[in-house]
Amino acid sequence: MSAITFEVEAEHQTARAGLLHTPHGDVHTPVLSPVATQATVKSLDPDELRGLGAEIVLANAYHLYLRPGADVVAHFGGLHRFMSWNGPLVTDSGGWQVFSLGFGLEHGVGKIASIFPDEDQPRQRPRGQKPRMTKIDDDGVTFTSHIDGSTHRFTPEVSIGIQEKLGADLILAFDECTSPLHDERYTAEALERTHCWAKRSIQARSRSDQALLGIVQGGPFEALRRESAQVIGSLGFDGFAIGGSLGRTKNDMRAILEWTIPALPAGLPRHLLGIGEPEDIFDAVERGIDMFDCVAPTRHARHGVLYTPDGRLMIHNARFHEDFTPIDPDCGCYTCTTFTRAYLRHLFIADELLGYRLATIHNLAFILGLVGRIRAGIMSGSLAEVRREFQAHWRAAPE
Amino acid sequence: MSAITFEVEAEHQTARAGLLHTPHGDVHTPVLSPVATQATVKSLDPDELRGLGAEIVLANAYHLYLRPGADVVAHFGGLHRFMSWNGPLVTDSGGWQVFSLGFGLEHGVGKIASIFPDEDQPRQRPRGQKPRMTKIDDDGVTFTSHIDGSTHRFTPEVSIGIQEKLGADLILAFDECTSPLHDERYTAEALERTHCWAKRSIQARSRSDQALLGIVQGGPFEALRRESAQVIGSLGFDGFAIGGSLGRTKNDMRAILEWTIPALPAGLPRHLLGIGEPEDIFDAVERGIDMFDCVAPTRHARHGVLYTPDGRLMIHNARFHEDFTPIDPDCGCYTCTTFTRAYLRHLFIADELLGYRLATIHNLAFILGLVGRIRAGIMSGSLAEVRREFQAHWRAAPE
What we know:
homodimer; alpha/beta; three-stranded antiparallel beta sheet; 16 helices
């Protein structure tokens, strides 16, 4: 019995609104976790995060293991105290980093392989691309630090040990992510490892005040995804995450959610890993996802890509040189109520740190506000209207 | 008659505490202006600045002329609105930038030439150092943009015109800064230009809601500094700044203040340009300086150099790896009341933007707090005790 409990408050077709009780407070789902890879949501302090309505933050076991080290964090009483965030926290297990430094690097692909939308065939490693820095065997993964080239090894036991030292409210099983360019044979092999590591992750846990989420893998292959949801769903996890590559298009992502979610125990929370663009959130919530984490809002912000109700604007654009309106006149965030597009553009052109921060504040306000409206739509049975209203303005990025 | 007035509230030997009334509020002197070179105090927002007790901020006519352009700022109603800082502002005239891109670059020197403390002779331009990017004539300065290599020209009339468009409460005459490695003959020639440009700056002004400060130059030469204070002091400026290179050691700086300040009209404010390390502030206030600006607290912060009552600490240092105390346990700033040295070190080692900001908050809190104690010491006649107490702990940087 975990100290974390989940209750479904309202359902609307397969979408649902819930309440996740954790030792560090309640989380209203659907919810999006801003990403604090290195124990900081880049440029923001914890008070700003709270002010933006963030209820839970995701940090990274791999990065914190390398710097400053899990023991340092443990000696100070855990990650909440270390980063001065006293709300709920989730840590990922390092499986994704092992992928992105491994086959992700070798194959030149990310979460959804749509960076090569016109290609049907797996692509060769781009010229000049580094070879992968990981070696996977059935017991675990040996990898090279992206910081100093030193060699390290993660196993399910190591990952759970690190995550118990960090002490987040939700932790993740250690898994092997596959690349969208892997064939079915390799993906099936990797899936067997992931299922074996899932059992070992459960075996390795020793804390009852953390919820342990199992991760469903299986790449873009229907049979494997269905099998994985069945297996992972039966092991006694406190909740679930859908991980790994989500295919080559957003259609693939929707299919993967439809294959897997119905096979998972209904009363437990479901997290879609690494996804969080506005259009994806609707698709996923409608199919039963409760939780998201995504670097997009914060990463976009640092690149000057700002969310507005009708899409994204690039603040570097010359047309904002004398634009004395806010990013979004209807947005109530500090950035929009205090500064103009012209000033923000100036900060970005001049490479000023304040620009990254003000942009991050706005993008998080936008996406957290959207997730809040989605939740309200589920509670009131008007999710379809919320989506319609959003899409009436929003120009989605091309698939 | 300027809309800015200055009253001396208390005197303690040659030190004084005063009140500067500006169209955007009162400033309690002695005061230090955080530097907002590009219309932002790097990484901080205006609310944080106010929260830190900053009363006035210094921005830069040269940088804002290049980016985003004085007209853009003027079209939006001036710099206060553009950067959302509704308190008092001062802009410098561009004279210093002309120096630092010119002879400063060629001679490899800064504000105080103590970067070569052991050398008696002017030093050759270091190998690989860029040649200067400015050409000075009696009418003005032609310079090359450090951003895109385009050619521009500043004259006193251009500088005042830009500063009137920016609309700060205090603006500075256009001057020629000389290098500490210039000989007396060149410095005298440059001084003649500075005095001529001072008169032209006064002629060029058209706004009565800005105070125009004259700048005393003359390098390290007693006769020239005394002459400059006499001339600049007689031209009808609303206040004064001591500018240019302040010699080769901090002793030279003290001498320059003693030569010049007594020759300036007593009832007007005096600004020491570009100086603001703790030890310098005491020296200058004791000699009659009312206002400072300095990039040191904010620049140090971004390099991880943090002020503490007993000197400076380098937060990257390995000894802070597991140091779970604040930077300064007696400091009441957000950084010190919320985060540990270990966390700050982690942010710096991991190159996280939040680190620069938290360090900036602390360094400004430290230096503004010190200036506040100095002011209180003048008001209560206990400035000597304030200095004694400060120096009992502080390990000054070597001269």
